[in-house]
Design brief:
- It is a single chain.
- Helices cover 62% and strands 4% of the residues.
- With 466 residues, it is mostly helical.
- The chain folds into three domains: 91 residues, Fumarase/aspartase (N-terminal domain) (Fumarase C, Chain B, domain 1); 215 residues, Up-down Bundle (Fumarase C, Chain A, domain 2); 100 residues, Fumarase/aspartase (C-terminal domain) (Ribonucleotide Reductase Protein R1, domain 1, Orthogonal Bundle).
- It has a two-stranded antiparallel sheet. A two-stranded antiparallel ribbon has the order 3-4.
- Helix 11 runs antiparallel to helix 12.
- The longest helix is centred in the N-terminal third of the chain and has 37 residues.
- It is elongated, with a radius of gyration of 30 Å.
Amino acid sequence: MAQLWGGRFTKETDKKVYDFNASINFDKRLMERDCEGSVAHAAMLAKCGIITKEESTKIIDGLVAVKNDVLEGKLEITDAYEDIHSFMEAKLIERIGDTGKKLHTGRSRNDQVALDMKLYTRLEVLYVDAAVKKLLGTILDIMTENTDTYMPGFTHLQKAQPVTLAHHLGAYFEMFKRDRDRLKDIFHRMNYCPLGAGALAGTTYPLDRDMTASLMGFYGPTLNSMDSVSDRDYLIEFLAALSIISMHLSRFCEEIIVWNTNEYRFIELDDAFSTGSSIMPQKKNPDIAELVRGKTGRVYGALMSLLTTMKGLPLAYNKDMQEDKEVSFDAIDTVKTCLDLFEGMLATTKFNKDNMAKSAVNGFTNATDAADYLVKKGMPFRDAHKVIGELVLYCIDEGISIDDCSLTKLKEFSELFDADVYDEISLKTCVSKRLTIGAPGMEAMKKIIAVSRDYLEHDWQDSEFE
């Protein structure tokens, strides 16, 4: 059992206690980040005269060699070590001798853990953001091609008013755009370096915390050593953002599932993103959409788990905080996989435009426009609402749409109807008249698509890392 401590103890840790306490099986994914932090720390120690330049170079070269050997499969991370930090330091000392023992000068495992997790999470924020951006690009491409693809808009899952596919997907574009805003905020808020905080009260060594922060791309050092080692707000925020992304994916998946039903037939999922039945040969199931929808609960669980872990913890570091890693790793992996699969599914989906338009007509989505037609002819809106309601009831009984009614029949409900009504209540007219910003009219949608395209072309990550 390789540990970084033990001088104060007179007997070995019980094996069951050691296994319960160890984190190597899951924190080994922090290996590269641990190396990055240690390299910066060693460089700073030399600059501050705490170790020599030669010692620093020897340590840095040794760390990089250990990292490369692990990445190339020449060196295995095993559970003979308590955590990834003990593994890296032990292997360094094996290779370069006593000089390796100087690496931990002015550093605690507490600020080392805090740094590694923050470095790892910072990268994952960028990866998730890139995946959301890719999905936004796919959504925008579909919007651009479907500004005149008419479909019913819904409230309460009831057909309400006609919209376009571009407009409907535009709602999801806005949702995922807000997700990126949240990720950007998290990145900016978390990008301060805890290294140098020590166990909780800093150190007597003359460290240059600004240097280490700069070497690793942080804006600067954290400003309170106790908060530095006990802060997990950034992880909670990230899990909250991942939960909202999952919720948005789940809502979209629900609609994909509904649209894929035989009753709607709005879409045809690509074979590569569907599955069949072991008993029913006719089935083509939207399993990917259902799994993405289902995994939302898993991500929510990670958020609630970490919130509960942190509730009531006194300052500063407590071992409870080791529980931040497994749930976070799982949630991050889950959301990245869901984003990747969902984007692929959406990009290959075929939209049945005729079925969408027929559904809008047969669902009386132009009823409001028919009432507005009568209002323009001089009828009070409340009376027009009643007339169209009675007309819809008649059409339901007859199994027809308003558009199918003859002018003679329409005049039985109101003499104000004239031949121009058919153009006024066509899907094209109903949609095209809605031209306020955010509405589904083609001209309004073209403006929004242009704004959205410009948004994707000016990426916050580009400006962050210029």
